[in-house]
Amino acid sequence: MFTGRRDFLMGATAALAGMPWLRGRAVSPRDTSAPIRPVDEPLREGNEQIAMLLYPQCTALDFIGPQYAFACLSGATVHQVAATMGPIVTDTGVTLTPTATFDQCPRDVDVLFVPGGTNGTLAAMRDDDVIRFVADRGARATWVTSVCTGSLVLGAAGLLRGYRATSHWAARDLLAEAHAIPTDSRVVVDRNRITGAGVSAGLDLGYVILALLRDQRYAETVQLMAEYAPQPPFGAGSPDTAPPSTKTIVEAMFTDFRAGVQQTLPR
Predict the structure, then answer these.
(1) DSSP assignment string, the chain
(2) CB under 8 Å to 64, separation ≥6 — which residues?
(3) Is 148 a catalytic residue?
(4) What are the C-alpha distances in Å from 155 to residues 114, 138, 162, 178?
(5) In the predicted model, is pLDDT for residue 240 greater than 50?
(6) Would you kindly state where each structural domain of the chain is located, as residue ranges?
(7) Mean predicted confidence (pLDDT) in 79-93
């Protein structure tokens, strides 16, 4: 009996092996400068250590989208890391449970991931313990990653200097104040830094990381399991396509956040 998504995925290996039409289909995702591994036979298992930061009032979907992808990595260990083992209440009221504290998290990790938010993110950027943890693990991590305004936490930890990076569109330009290079793309890979745009981009980022850690077919298999084929009901998912009045409303929501970031980022 399959006991979880990872077991189910690895159970599909036998079925996938021997399908010649699956071989040789390695195409790099848009905006990905790092090489995607060619398709291997069969689906591979690894032993990655993945640290996913949690902090009060982070955005739940920022965290859950990538977490779904990471949880499908057979053999990997996903650490949900916070300052304490107490429950973390996100900005939408969803409660998430840490599995390790900063001290308990492995010193060397393959992936460091930081979610975004608004008020919670500002508090994290001003929290010495959070920044110390992010800077320490990020200095040695194979991949340093974030979604949405989580990239500003990476910036506050000094991890984006000279790197191309993205964030939520309403805050992306603020990355320049962290000496990063703001880049308008859904997912941006610059060397070992991988950043995603706002909230839902975490789903895309998760699949990009799966392809880099394993290969494209592994990522495609998880994508199909999730039936991730977006067909949004409205064309308002980008500031380039949203009605001007809608864009104005969202920009106003970020006014205080932007001012707080400008006061917080080191010069």
Answers:
(1) ---SHHHHHHHTHHHHTT-GGGTT---PPTTB-SPPPPP-SS------EEEEE--TTB-HHHHHHHHHHHHTSTT-EEEEEESSSS-EE-TTS-EE--SEETTTS-SS-SEEEE--BSHHHHHHHT-HHHHHHHHHHHHH-SEEEEETTHHHHHHHTT--TT-EE---TTTGGGGGGGT-EE--SSEEEETTEEEE-STTHHHHHHHHHHHHHS-HHHHHHHHHHTT-----SSS-SSTTTS-HHHHHHHHHHTHHHHHHHHHHS--
(2) 202
(3) yes
(4) 11, 11, 10, 5
(5) yes
(6) 49-228
(7) 98
Taken in order 154, 240, 189, 51, is the CA torsion positive or negative?
A: positive
Give the closest residue to 219 by CA, choosing from 24, 26, 63, 15. Answer: 26
Q: Report the top-level CATH class of 49-228.
A: alpha beta
Q: Which of 58, 72, 105, 148 is catalytic?
A: 148
pTM of the model: 0.88
Indicate if the pLDDT at residue 100 is higher than 80.
yes
**Mean pLDDT of the residues in the chain:** 90
Query: pLDDT tens-digit profile of 134-176?
Result: 999 999 999 999 999 999 999 999 999 999 999 999 999 999 9
260 and 118 Cβ atoms separated by less than 8 Å: no
